[in-house]
Design goal:
mainly beta, RmlC-like_jellyroll, Jelly Rolls, five-stranded antiparallel sheet, 2 helices, dTDP-4-dehydrorhamnose 3,5-epimerase activity, isomerase
């Protein structure tokens, strides 16, 4: 597995080795030992999620205050622009973000640890997005920050269609007014 560091030290890009020939390909999409070596952290994944969205659908910036979820995310069809935002109030990188393209072609995965918000927008006609989580979904503690908050300054790709957001995402907070992760 190839490991790339990002501007946020805890957020890591993982690219599995792909073995292919004229028949197709094989790759190990997850291996606990390789994940721990690559990220330097031990996590137990408890839930796998799969979403399919059309071009322009933007989901996020989501996070949970209770039962925070670490997420290992990847795309198995299409492509997305994926973003992680540091929401740990005591972090030197608080409010900073990283973004990368995840696609079925590049096989990249992004580790988004607990304490970070997560969002993505679909760049291809459709995309199938998979994520492993370290805790269960807890709707009562889910929070959302607006994708276009000027305080974050996230650089979203230009698409031939307008962004499509859920009502929840349209009503997201600004970073300034949001409940975020506090020091323990």
């Amino acid at each position: 597995m190839h490991v790339e560091k990002t501007a946020l030290p805890e957020v890591v890009i993982l690219t599995p080795k792909v073995f292919g020939d004229e028949r197709g390909f094989f790759m190990e999409s997850f291996n606990q030992q390789a994940f721990e070596e690559a990220t330097g952290c031990k996590r137990h994944f408890v839930q796998d999620n799969h979403s399919r969205s059309r071009q322009g659908v933007l989901r996020g910036i989501h996070y949970q205050l209770e039962q925070p979820q670490g997420k290992l995310v990847r795309v198995v069809h299409g492509s997305v622009w994926d973003v992680a935002v540091d929401l740990r109030r005591d972090s030197a990188q608080f409010g900073q973000w990283v973004g990368i393209e995840l696609s079925a072609e590049n096989n990249r995965q992004l580790w988004v640890p607990e304490g970070f918000g997560h969002a993505f927008v679909v760049m291809s006609e459709t995309a199938d997005f998979l994520y492993k989580t370290t805790d269960f979904y807890h709707p009562e503690s889910e929070r959302c920050i607006r994708f276009d908050d000027p305080a974050l300054g996230i650089e979203w790709p230009e698409l031939p269609v307008p962004f499509a957001l859920s009502e929840k995402d349209q009503a997201g907070s600004t970073l300034k007014s949001a409940e975020v992760y506090s020091p323990l």
